[in-house]
Design a protein that fits this description.
GO terms for molecular function: polyamine transmembrane transporter activity; symporter activity. It is found in: Cell membrane. This protein has helices spanning 42-53, 61-97, 104-112, 114-118, 137-146, 148-182, 201-213, 219-247, 261-280, 284-310. It has 325 residues and is mostly helical. It has one domain (47-120, 127-307). Helix 3 packs across helix 8 (219-247). The longest helix is centred in the N-terminal third of the chain and has 37 residues, at 61-97. It is globular, with a radius of gyration of 22 Å.
């Protein structure tokens, strides 16, 4: 993962280095050590991006069972245009305009303040009974098409996919906690990095413990709850993107989505409708888990404010870690 610094145009000259930073500037992570300059090489970055956005077709069998192979394939072909492309454009603009660890946590903090920043080809064809397409049936389908050898490889791929998906999510969550510590939303020790790998080991450890804590739930409830919370985060990300375009049109954006605000609203409305639909069809267990976690996040925000005001824990301030040249 890269460690970001302020762009040149936001750094005051040495003559005014003693002046306090502007209110709109975000705290960033800088470090004078050579380890902080390490970056992911191309191949690991490709794998990280792949597992962040896909990870393989595993788990898509219920789509075939519910809608049939034709509509499932059509959905896989159409969905990238109404979801993936808008999300990629939004990420490209906001990540270059607001570089730093934390992702949409920084974007929501910039748009709405610290409260919202803390919440945030066909190779074979056989006749198969559509009702059999349950989770895990892909391996059986592979055996029907090409034999046991393909089933074995599909199963090996499923294991590697699960490991890759978990590692990618762990990386993302760890750096979001690091970004929240940089913003002063979490205690300073959440920003601690490994001396060997320069990774946020505290954030990774906390994310791992949370994953272990919810492992007693059924797989379906875990996925549904994760999707519900992810939907809330994505709605906040879309809102931050539109709000910053409206309220801060002159903000420096190395990459800018080449659309006007009305077109951007339409672009965000389509994926937002899917997010609302996912949330509307959730089960009572998902509502309970997601509600408790959301309430817990809100409560945590106010507890951290009390700890900060009374000096019970050490936090980074907006004046820390700025490279003032």
């Amino acid at each position: 993962m890269t460690v970001s610094t302020l762009p040149k145009e936001t750094q005051p000259p040495p003559a005014v280095a003693s002046m306090p930073p502007l209110q709109h500037e975000l705290p960033v992570t800088t470090a004078p050590t050579p380890a902080a300059k390490k970056k992911l090489t191309l191949i690991p970055l490709i794998f990280l991006i792949y597992f962040e956005v896909a990870g393989g077709p595993y788990g898509e069998e219920p789509a075939v069972q519910a809608a049939g192979p034709l509509f499932a394939i059509l959905g896989f072909l159409i969905f990238p245009f109404i979801w993936s492309i808008p999300e990629a454009l939004i990420t490209a603009e906001l990540s270059t305009a607001l570089p730093g660890n934390g992702g949409f946590v920084l974007w929501a903090d910039k748009a709405f303040g610290p409260f919202f920043g803390s919440l945030m080809a066909v190779t074979g064809a056989v006749v198969v009974d559509q009702s059999k397409w349950e989770a895990g049936y892909m391996a059986d389908a592979a055996r029907t098409i090409s034999g046991t050898w393909l089933k074995v490889w599909i199963e090996i791929g499923a294991v590697l996919s699960a490991v890759g998906l978990f590692e990618a999510q762990l990386s993302s969550s760890g750096y979001q906690l690091l970004g929240m510590a940089d913003l002063g939303l979490l205690p300073k020790f959440f920003a601690l990095r490994s001396k060997r790998f320069n990774t946020p080991w505290v954030g990774i450890l906390v994310s791992t413990l949370i994953a272990i804590g919810v492992s007693y739930m059924s797989y379906t409830d875990i996925v549904a709850s994760a999707n519900f919370l992810y939907s809330l985060g994505m709605l906040l990300e879309f809102s931050s993107f539109l709000w910053l375009r409206w309220k801060s049109p002159q903000m420096n954006r190395p990459y800018r989505v080449p659309l006007r605000l009305p077109a951007l609203i339409v672009m965000c409305l389509i994926p937002s409708a899917f997010l609302v639909f996912i949330m509307a069809i959730a089960t009572k267990t998902v509502y309970l888990v997601s509600g408790l976690m959301t309430i817990g996040g809100i409560g945590w925000f106010f507890v951290m404010n009390v700890c900060k005001s009374k000096g019970l824990l050490h936090f980074k301030s907006n004046l820390e870690d700025h490279d003032l040249g």
